[in-house]
Amino acid sequence: MKWVREYFVKNALEKPKKKKTQKSILLHIENIKTIGILANNKEEIEKITAIIHEHLNKDIKVLGNYYDENSVDEQAFSYKDFTLFGKPGEKLNQLLSLKPDLIIFTSEKLNYFTLYLLQLQSASYSMGFFSDELKPYLDLMLNKEEKDIQSGTALLIKYLKQIN
User: Fold this and answer.
1) Residue 15: is its pLDDT beyond 90?
2) Which pLDDT band holds residue 46 (cuts at 50, 70, 90)?
3) Does 23 map to a domain?
4) Range of the structural domain that residue 128 is part of
């Protein structure tokens, strides 16, 4: 029944957002208490978390998730975590209720479910690497110049600090 869920999620992505959230162009680094990560896998989440704690603050709470249809890991989610009509299930509602101050999006596996989760977190400031598909969802984007995720994330944080 993946295709049914995908159909409803795709339709939700195509509809304009009902409520445009007012975001400050500037996100003050000292105000960041929670960061959400949408990544490719668990190892990437661990690497990004280490960079965040090294370059920002060790007290920042980091929540990471990734899309994987076959994993039973707590941080993994899939189409099965959405209802038949494309609404987030209980596991994802818990994640959405945490409302991180900043979202770092590094997932290269773009799919409707990951994009929808990013859209549902629209009140949070979000940043990641440049992609035409991600323009409506990210507030700060950089070209992916670095080959490894650690140096790429360090660059994202560096530019976020410079904006402040």
Assistant:
1) no
2) very high
3) no
4) 2-16+30-163
Domain count, the chain: 1
Looking at beta carbons, which pairs linking 122-127 to residues 24 or more positions away fall under 8 Å? Answer: 122/17, 122/21, 123/21, 123/23, 123/99, 124/36, 124/99, 124/100, 125/23, 125/24, 125/27, 125/101, 126/102, 127/102, 127/103, 127/156, 127/160
Evaluate if residue 20 carries a pLDDT over 80: no
Question: Three-state DSSP class for 126?
Answer: strand
Partnered with residue 64 across adjacent β-strands are 37
The pTM of the full predicted model, rounded to 2 decimals, is 0.88
Element (H, E) at 62: strand 61-67
Residue with token string 């770092």:
104
